[in-house]
Amino acid sequence: MQNQYELLKNEIKTFREEGHKFFNKELSVGDFKKISGGMGVYAQRGGEKFMIRLRTNSGLLPLNQLKLTESFLTDFNIEKLHITTRQAIQLHDLSIDDVCDIMEKALNNGLYTRGGGGNFPRNVSLSPMSGVEKNEAFDVTEFANAISKYLMERITTYHLPRKLKISMSSSSTDGGNSTINDLGFIAKVENGEAYFDMYIAGGLGNNPEISIPYGKKVKPEEILYYVEAMVNLFMAEGDYNNKAKARTRYIPKRMGREEFLAAFDKHLEEVKNSKDLTLNLKATLSKTQETYTHSLAETPSLLHQRQDGLYTLIIHPVNGQLYHQDFKNLVEFLENNKNVEARLSMNEDIYVRNLTEEQVKELNEIVKNYNGQTKIRQSVSCIGVPTCQLGIEQSQTLLKNILTYLSDNNIKEDKLPSVHISGCHNSCGRHQAADLGFVGGKKKVGDALEDVFDIYVGGLVKEGETALGEKVGTIIMRDIPTFIGELAKKLEKENMEYKEFIKNRENFLEVANKFFV
């Protein structure tokens, strides 16, 4: 690892030089992106400021890394941080020297940015409730850590056609999104035996696909063989020439599903015959009690753990943007309550776990001014315009406008779902897997070129039920808050939860049709 540490430090030195070339217009946007993505850095729109993505392994937030991140906000005068939809933290509006200084300090403290973007294995996603979720099979945290360690030890050696996303979930609720990733593992138990169900070649974005069930039990200690087999299959069969069709989901489309699974088994056999990747880890089955004595009721932001009397509080700042002072207050709370831990989710949340009833009340006081308490206020939005180079629409502005409209008009919002907003078709807001999703674009309406969002309905992530949302229409951006308000009123009038309401699409279209363009 010492050699890799020196290699990564030298990469930062070279990257700093290339970053200055880009800033001085000596390097094109495309050429810089080829270099920067693999370093976990992207230029923002305009090319003068930069974003860095801190690769918080599977969303785990040990106290030392929280304090380190808070020091970055202080030392570099950063107003806020952004919690991503893949359990990482992004810092924005930085100079290239700030980015490289942060990268070096992070590396010195075991926090990586390498492979945070580009054609590399990305952060291994993990159910944020793993270890504390009722009815889970077993805690998969250490297995996710093992995959992350394995990938990071080799991160500078990978030459993949495109990004590779791996996920782990501790139960069929699929909190890690294993059924819509390139490679996903879901914990299972049968007759006292722990194993994983595995899913492969799924993903969101253009031409999205639900992952293919592998159909064979995977022993927990053997997961690295399957990871390596997937990497090798991707390199052997992935499209290096056409970026638009380079993700793993295009391989079974070309080969056919059965041929694809056979090819995977061939690579798996080769790995098992040539390497020893067996983990010295044992799955410990989780126990869920028949009855519990939690006194605080569950809400969209408060969950009961399988450990009796303990709670998880979900902290969700609007748009996943957590301001410096609010983050500092949270870090101080965690420092003063050593029994408590924090994890990032796939929905721009922070899950604070192992709270007692008194700690719940204390933390609620700390976060009450910004924490989303209803599903609609736990909505998800990518960064979008004006920050993202690729963004088409202002996704964060849209979400703010929706929430402001609901508040200003005193509209009851309890039955509304979370909405997921992407500023373009890359699906960084995961609109295709949401109850209600929006994706930005432009459309000529009459004589005017309008800012619009396509609407997707009925997406779901849950093992055995995962479904991609159906596009039902397009609405001008400025009309969407009114549409959401009308939807809220209809749900209240019918006294129906949204999921039940949309089972009959005509219900939804009755509200939406008058807004479509």
Automatic annotation (TrEMBL):
SUPFAM superfamilies membership: Nitrite and sulphite reductase 4Fe-4S domain-like, Nitrite/Sulfite reductase N-terminal domain-like
Limits of the Nitrite/sulphite reductase 4Fe-4S domain: 118-270, 374-462
Superkingdom as given in the UniProt entry: Bacteria
Keywords noted in UniProt: 4Fe-4S, Heme, Iron, Iron-sulfur, Metal-binding, Oxidoreductase
Keyword match Oxidoreductase: yes
Coiled-coil segments: none
Domain Nitrite/Sulfite reductase ferredoxin-like stretches: 42-106, 305-368
Alphabetical list of InterPro entries matching this protein: NIR_SIR_4Fe-4S (IPR051329), NiRdtase/SiRdtase_haem-b_fer (IPR005117), Nit/Sulf_reduc_fer-like_dom_sf (IPR036136), NO2/SO3_Rdtase_4Fe4S_dom (IPR006067), NO2/SO3_Rdtase_4Fe4S_sf (IPR045854), NO2/SO3_Rdtase_FeS/sirohaem_BS (IPR006066)
The keyword Iron-sulfur belongs to this UniProt entry's keyword annotation: yes
GO MF: 4 iron, 4 sulfur cluster binding; heme binding; metal ion binding; oxidoreductase activity
Any Pfam family matching the protein: NIR_SIR_ferr
Protein name: Nitrite/sulfite reductase
Organism, scientific name: Fusobacterium mortiferum
Upper taxonomic lineage: Bacteria, Fusobacteriati, Fusobacteriota, Fusobacteriia, Fusobacteriales
